[in-house]
Each structure stands twice: as C-alpha cells, then as structure tokens.
Design goal:
Layout: H1 2-18, H2 27-43, E1 53-57, E2 62-64, H3 87-96, E3 100-108, E4 113-124, E5 129-136, H4 137-183, H5 185-238, H6 245-268, H7 271-276, H8 278-293, E6 296-300, H9 310-331, E7 335-343, E8 346-353, E9 369-372
Parallel strand pairs: 6-7
Antiparallel strand pairs: 1-2, 1-5, 3-4, 4-5, 7-8, 8-9
Subcellular location: Cell membrane
Transmembrane segments: 161-182
Keywords: Cell membrane, Kinase, Membrane, Transferase, Transmembrane, Transmembrane helix, Two-component regulatory system
Amino acid sequence: MNQKKQELQNYTSLARAAIKHIHPADKNENNIQQVAIQKLLNQLLYNGDDGYFFAYDDQGINIAHPKEPYRIGKSWWDLEDDSGNKIIQQLISNAKVGGGFLQYQWSKPSNQSTSNKMSYSTYLEEWQWILGTGVYLDDVNQQLASLQQKIDQHINKTKQIILIISLSSIFIIFLLGLVINLSNKKKADKKINELGQKIVNLQEEQHRHISRELHDGIVQILVSIQYSIEATTIFLSQSKQEKPKPLADAEKNLKIAIQEVRRISHNLHPRILDELGLSAGIAALAKEFSKQTHIEISFTKPKLRKLLPDNINISLYRVVQESLINIEKHAKATHITIDLAIENKWLTLTITDNGIGFSGSKKIKRGRLSSLLV
C-alpha cells in the first residue's frame, strides 16, 4: 500500500508538471486553455484503461475525466458512494491541505464493475482546481494472492526436500547394512549402530536447520505481511470503510499459513528440547497433544532441567511422540500417563493409557525403555 501511495504521488507530480506551462489568462482565453488541459490529461494514461487523471474546481464541477466524459462541466459536489462518503468534497478537502489519499467505491473502466479505489489529490493554486489520480485495490489484492501462492509453493518445496532427505537416508542405511552384514556380522553390528546414530544426528541437524529457517525466515515474512494487512484494516476502519471480502480472505488464509508453517517447524525439531531439555520438551508435547485431541495426560518428571546428551534426548522425545500418535489412532483412550523417573542412576520412561488394547488372541505386551545416565 505504501508503494501504491508513492506511485500515485509520483504520477500526480508528473501530470502537474505536464500542464504547468498552461497558465490561466483572461476570461476569454480561459476556455481555450481549459480545453487544452482536458486534451492533455486525456492523453496521460497508464496501467491500461484504469490509470487516468481527473480534475475538479472548488465547486465540484468536473474539468477533465478521460473515462467518463459525461461528467465534464457538471457539478458533482454531493456525489456519494455506496458507503455514504462525499467523494468529491473529501478529494477537494484533502487537496487543499497539501494533498491526501482517499478510499472510496468507483466504477473500474477495464471491466465496468464497482471496485474499491484509492485516490490522491493535490491542489492547483493558479487554477483553483484539484488534480488527482487513483488505483483500484482489487489489483493490490491480486498481488497479495500471488504472494500467497508463492509462499504455499515454498512450503510445498520444503516438504519435498524433507521427504527426499528421509527417503535418501533410509536408502543409505539399507545399503550400508546389507554390505556390512555380508562382510562381518560382529563388526557390522557395531558399525550399523555408529552409522545409524550419525544418520539420526544428521537428520535431526537437517530438521533443526530447516525448522530454524522456517521459523526465522518464512514465518517472519508472513507475520510482516499480516501486519501490513492489519494496518490496512485499521486504515479502512478509521476511514469508515468496510473491509473488502478479498482482503478478509487473504488475512484468514495468511493466519492459516502462519499456523501451518509453525506446526511444520515445531514437528521437524522442537526448539524447547535444545533450550530446556527432555522434561520440558515432553511436557510441551503433552500439552499440545491434549489440546488437539482432548485426551487428558498426566506427566510425572524429575525435578532436574537437563541431564542427557542431545542424541538420547531426541530418541526419547521421538518415542513419546510416536507413542502418542499410536494411542490417538488405535487405543481410543481418554487418559494417558507419562512417567519419567530416575532410580539408582537409571532413567525410566513409562507410557500407559486406559485404551482398548489388542483384540483377539494377541497378547498385550508392556515394555519399559530405559537409558543409563553416564
């Protein structure tokens, strides 16, 4: 919107410079000079059919209008738009205080439809006229929609990169495991563990990097766009203008996009895990899961902040994350208990629920994942 305002001021300055050489003379010559200005303004067009200049005198009589010549010579002092705004009066008032902007509804020449328009008007002292031009805001909304499309494409591209990395990692693990098992089982077990951990660390590092890029890059751009839209909404409200539906839709879609990017960023790698440790990470995960699924979660944790190395933290966090997903899909539970405890230098993680378990002849097996603190 600031860019469009600057463009309107620049266009008006150019038009004013174009007619500057024509000065009012005596009454007999004024009509001739006025016709000359009309012809000149009729030729100053831009942006196809929608960019043109108009002129009115102090009494609201139209002096020049290339797209609506029937207005010339008539007074439009009391002209109102659908919102009851005195368009010509406000344009004259803005011009006399040094120039200003006004939003109102006006017919768009290119498609003959009524659209929201923002105009800038300035005052010509020598003629006691106002000179102005405007831009139709549906064109601005089209630019916002184009920007939204580019953002969506960027998000989809990021998802594709994550998928390719994951599939490539799985393929590499498979090939390495096959080669090592054929050569030596004992050495293979050791190397697979080492390589597996490295790949996990690489994946998490890549996830951490992509998550940071999404959070610090795309989200900040989206938020800045949201602030611009909110500023536009405030401006419309102050001008007693109704917010256009395309603008409201763009604002709604933008909020959804911000939430979606933040969700993807958080799922890739929760930053709280790096900053506050495993206990805080699981607590935040449980709170978000309970909010989304309405399944009550009780979480017991030790009164310690950060005990484990990053690879153990990530592994246990992913175990809890996957367990909650499985419970939501299959268990039909209403309550989940997560117990993280330290006993005799052992860290014990226990996840239980009150779900339906396994049906038929399958036996329910309860396990416990433990990790020794070193």
